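Below is one such record:
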Amino acid sequence: MSVAGVALEGEAEVPTVLLRDPDGTAMLAVPVGAFEASAIIIQVEGLQPPRPLTHDVLAELFVRHGFFLDRFELYGKGEEGLLGRLRYRKGLRRFTMEVRPSDGIALALRLDAPISARRDLLVEGVGPSHADLRSFIDPASVLVLGHRDYSLRV
């Protein structure tokens, strides 16, 4: 999955990361906190904050201490929303850690690790065109798009 964008969803304007599957036919909306949305936008846009953010520090710890993030996966739904976990390793040892989806996405982006989601969590029938993306989310709510080839301008 790749980050197609970040938008404010609903009347409460909840920051939401839009993930698109590799073949461009399905999406997943992941509600996140404001801080995590900012961290994701900063990474997607290639911006450099004056000081490292928490996710930058964690990514640096991974690299500095020889850990490798194999992937972040969204694997189900719980009482509080989507469930996510990191799959990582150091040498021959493999590890799994439950994390909030927002933190997993932010870290995966920084470490250039794949993001995956169970197929039954996705909304099918959303193609790569901006018209399909418009049907999925209100264009006025879009904060950033992850791919330069997508445009929601009217």
